[in-house]
Amino acid sequence: MTVREATHDDYQAVMNMASPDTFRDGFDYLLAKFHGFVDDPDTVFLLVELDGEVVFLDVQFLRDEGESCVAKTIRMSPKMLGRRFAKTFRAAMRVRHFAKFIEMSGQQPKKLHVLRDTERHDLKRLDSDLPLRTKSVINIMYFCWDATPMKDGLTDNQTSLPALVPYQPSDIQCLLPPAFSAAILSEGTVLVDWDPYKLSEPNMKKLVEAGCYILVDSTEPAANSLSFGGSYMTPRGRVYHIDTVRTRLYVRLTS
Length: 255
Description:
Elements: E1 2-5, H1 11-18, H2 30-39, E2 43-50, E3 53-63, E4 68-76, H3 86-105, E5 111-117, E6 134-140, H4 148-152, E7 164-166, H5 172-175, H6 178-181, E8 189-192, E9 195-198, H7 201-209, E10 213-217, E11 225-234, E12 237-246, E13 249-254
Parallel strand pairs: 4-5, 5-6
Antiparallel strand pairs: 1-2, 2-3, 3-4, 7-10, 8-9, 10-11, 11-12, 12-13
InterPro entries: Hisat_C
Organism: Branchiostoma floridae
Protein name: Probable N-acetyltransferase 16 isoform X2
């Protein structure tokens, strides 16, 4: 068994293994984001090979200057499913992941963020023995519905709303005051396409560079709302995500 970092040349081998046509019912982001994961200096993208064949992958992000990490995705070859290999593979990768994190930031992360499908009860065991003081787990369900009736029922609202403008670096001063960052956001964290980010200037810069479209209202001295938008191609078409925070409301729209 060999554990190594992924390269651009692994694209086809990974896609052959990862089943992007069926993962999330075909709405898989991996095809669109594979090369970005390989290039991102804050991402550790590891593969397991058996007899020269890629059979497992594990993608994790380092966040907040090394304070936390995000377990983005794991995939395993269909022929290995049901054979109790997942935890063995994760254990083999763990030393490499944390060695890379320490190399990147000079410290070991103290918090792990995990996103789980509510129907995958088997995944709960995989991070149960990690040496972290805090674990943040979000359970999710994926569903689709016909939005036409709701769209047809919308009416023109004449209420005056603050102007929304594209985010500029100077806007961070309206987002960091406790009136917004502490009162509205849980631990000052926003979710962008399900990935957690601490509200900070470096993270906002990273999102802008990644092509995320960010809008902030013009309220001063503290903003009242913040939204993130983006899209990527999947086997079943383009997915758009809109993530909005306002007062104590968190809204996520996907189409």
